[in-house]
Design brief:
Largest interface: A-B, 107 and 106 residues
Number of helices of chain A: 17
Shape of chain A: elongated
Strand content of chain A: 15-25%
Oligomer: homodimer
Number of strands of chain A: 16
Number of domains of chain A: 2
Structural class of chain A: alpha+beta
CATH superfamily of the largest domain in chain A: Bira Bifunctional Protein, Domain 2
CATH architecture of the largest domain in chain A: 2-Layer Sandwich
Radius of gyration of chain A: 29 Å
CATH topology of the largest domain in chain A: BirA Bifunctional Protein, domain 2
Largest sheet of chain A: 8 strands, mixed
Strand order of the largest sheet of chain A: 1-5-6-11-10-9-7-8
């Protein structure tokens, strides 16, 4: 094993060719989908002014911000003035504030890139990791919410995650729920945080926590948990929510989203899920989470957050968005997404005096679009060079010595079949293009 | 104008859709070229351990490193433990040291991504900017040098920079030059630094600086400058270099490179340039720079640097590489490289009750690969929605109201010609795919 000093810093990763190609493949597929929806790409700097980020992520979040020391004469102060991007939403708010009328209305943007959080590194948890967000800023139309949900579903389809389900709820429906069950207003927030655990904890445990940690009367806790976990939970909720204005408005929001998204998503993959809460409290309308068979937690999520852009320093505009858990998705896909690049042609160099011509062949093959490599190590032994060609998983190896030059031919060895053919030098590119295309 | 607080930090840039697409287009073309050469991609973290970077870039460089404050209880110390990537070569040395035998031999890698330097921002000088490097680690073959030069030339061709010239020299030839003209050994480094200015300063000024700043005897200074700037400088140098071992070896290196690279690059675009020095002192063999008509300075450069990987903490392996000045190239290309994405189809939504079907049309058109947008703002006025479609530069706008629904047709308005057609809803995707393909 190599010495630790050469490893990447704790919580970060080096991506060598194989893993990097897989990631780029996933990103490219997602990008194609977002572009088809008319979302525009955006790229902001890796760091922002420290004050742009501070106070935006709560006390816990603030501690996880990587801060950059001031420079030059100010370095000795030990103070920071810049900080690494912690998410993609605060930079979005800054961009909307800065470019205002230069941006289309609504501003539909996608973003894919690293963010940095000084979290304790762990299995599947990194300090540098990719986020992939898509947002619509400046529209309060339910069509915008539906576009986000459809884009998420389409992106998952495109990267090969097909067994997923979109759980939908609404903040207003949740308010209506609390009202319908007589939850005292001041307990609402805590009750929702506990109810959010229904997908992980047993119902009794959730009921106990509601009573003990949230001070909810036991009868209300019991009724809430038993109705939310019942076979016919959706029907019970629909009935309960009829009794309050928020409840009715929430159900209407949800039904509208289901109606607008179904043609893309398919009825079986999207459903009103009354127990879905979502931890973050900035959502104001519909919320959703995408879960996949065999994956704990969610692989995508989002919702409407009309007050957030203003709270983050931007203008007061409605907005909604979604985030794909790309790191989890790449992990989920594993080897299925592996992108192996195969060398088409490996050129051996067995004689100094033919090297320039070999380089000429390489140029012609590359101009023809073939992935072509030239032997660059020191040995002049053909066997060693052919082993190199095989190690590079090349489909063809070329041999061109003094005798071949005299005859005006190149020996083309098919490394899959082992067969070897003499090809006139002038026809080489055409010959190999023909042979490489079918599986290339 | 927006308030300064919303601008990106000094020396950094937000890339909105147009500029970002241009950049991505340039990067994609370059990537295709490097892949055809069999170079592998690599991505390392944005930051490294501070000690990995410190001392690698000289005193001036060290001052320009962005350092990251320690976190948690250590934050108050004001100390840094991490630092933003300053170039791509130190991370390469760390990767070669860390992964050793997992990497192919030689290890041919390309890398494209941001680096960060706390330089004073200025015109065309940024604190976050992209570097694009290609290197071969573990080969001392002249073929490796030639591959680098050819890959650079091919990449420039691919992004549309065709009027360029590759200037070639060799560190050994430069040593031979100093020897041939009787430059005292201890003055050599300084003399080369001044000679490097021959492309910017008048010959007399360079001669004066050689005498005054470098303490070179006036007759040697005069002879050097007049021979290097003569019409027949190359012939004079070839003659002068015959007298020393370094000189002969250097010329041989250069001629070999010209011989191996000419088939790709073309004789007119590459030449031995005796006055080319290159500032950095880590080069050990051939060196090159690419200059383009009308651009001061170089747009690409590189050479052989056999001792550098070891000096940077890696194993002692030969290496050579090149760097494309992508920021300058993107600036040079300007609007010529602009990638405008045009919306194929803009869907209006003029009636609440047909919105779900409009979303269904959007899904079908996107599935057919068309860039499709749905009207997300609040107005229900057709004129306003058609103006939006025109603003989005859409080729077609669709209109689908209650009457259209009843008739089972969609009104398709060609926004270029202004013509409008009724298309049966079931044939919509096929119809628009056919109409969009020719110019899509």
């Amino acid at each position: 094993m190599a010495s630790q000093q050469f490893e990447p810093p704790s919580g970060t990763r080096d991506f060598l060719a194989g893993a990097l190609r897989t990631r780029e493949h996933v990103f490219a597929r997602i990008r194609e989908v977002f572009e088809r929806y008319g979302f525009e790409p955006l790229q902001t700097p890796a760091f922002e002014r420290l004050e742009t980020l501070t106070g935006k992520y709560g006390d816990e979040g603030d501690k996880l911000i990587f801060k950059i020391l001031r420079r030059g004469e100010h370095e000795a102060t030990g103070e920071a003035d810049l900080a690494l991007r912690y998410d993609m939403t605060v930079p979005l708010a800054r961009v909307v504030a800065n470019y205002g009328s230069q941006l289309p209305t609504p501003y539909k943007r996608y973003v894919m890139g690293p963010v940095w959080r000084a979290d304790r590194p762990g299995r599947g948890r990194f300090r540098e990791f990719a986020q992939c967000d898509v947002d619509v800023v400046g529209s309060s139309s339910p069509l915008a919410d539906a576009e986000i949900v459809c884009a998420m579903a389409d992106a998952l389809d495109a990267v090969g995650v097909r067994e997923f389900k979109i759980l939908v709820n609404s903040r207003r429906a949740l308010s209506g729920l609390l009202e319908a069950y007589g939850v005292p207003g001041e307990l609402g927030g805590g009750v929702l945080i506990t109810l959010d655990k229904l997908d992980k904890l047993a119902p009794e445990k959730v009921a106990t926590e509601l009573v003990e940690a949230r001070s909810l009367p036991a009868d209300i806790a019991k009724a809430l948990v038993s109705d939310l976990t019942a076979e016919d939970a959706v029907e019970r909720m629909r009935t309960a929510l009829e009794d309050s204005e928020d409840g009715r408005a929430g159900v209407e929001e949800i039904d509208r989203l289901l109606d607008l998204a179904t043609s893309k998503v398919g009825q079986a993959r999207i459903a009103f899920t009354p127990s879905l809460v979502r931890g973050l409290d900035y959502y104001t309308g519909v919320i959703f989470e995408v879960v996949a068979e065999g994956m704990p937690g969610s692989i995508a999520s989002g919702g409407r957050y009309d007050g957030l852009i203003a709270a983050l320093g931007g203008p007061d505009v409605p907005a909604c968005g979604g985030s794909l858990g790309v790191e989890r998705i790449i992990g989920l896909l594993g080897d299925a997404a592996a992108q192996d690049e195969r060398t088409d042609v490996a050129l051996t160099v067995i004689a100094e005096e033919t090297a320039a011509e070999v380089m000429g062949f390489a140029a012609a093959l590359r101009d023809a679009g073939l992935r072509t490599e030239v032997y660059l190590a020191a040995s002049r032994k053909l066997a060693k060079q052919l082993k190199w060609a095989a190690d590079r998983k090349a489909r063809f190896a070329l041999i061109y010595g003094a005798a071949d030059k005299e005859a005006g031919v190149v020996a083309v060895k098919d490394l899959d079949s082992g067969e070897q053919e003499q090809v006139p030098a002038a026809e080489l590119a055409a010959y190999l293009t023909r042979r490489c295309v079918p599986t290339g």
